[in-house]
């Protein structure tokens, strides 16, 4: 778009996830523990 069109700030983020992929979200654990949990699963 051209400059000065009043687009405003982004409201949210979007990520492209290809079909067949599984997306995980973990909170409250360290990256090491999260990686270990994924490798065991």
TrEMBL record:
Instruction: Recall the GO molecular function terms of this protein's record.
Output: rRNA binding; structural constituent of ribosome
Q: Which CDD domains match?
A: Ribosomal_L16_L10e (cd01433)
Q: Which Pfam families match?
A: Ribosomal_L16
- Supply the PROSITE patterns for this chain: RIBOSOMAL_L16_2
InterPro entries, per database record? Ribosomal_uL16, Ribosomal_uL16_bact-type, Ribosomal_uL16_CS, Ribosomal_uL16_dom, Ribosomal_uL16_sf
GO CC terms of this entry: mitochondrial large ribosomal subunit
Entry's family note: Belongs to the universal ribosomal protein uL16 family.
- What this protein is called in its record is 50S ribosomal protein L16, chloroplastic
Q: Which organism is it from?
A: Elymus tauri
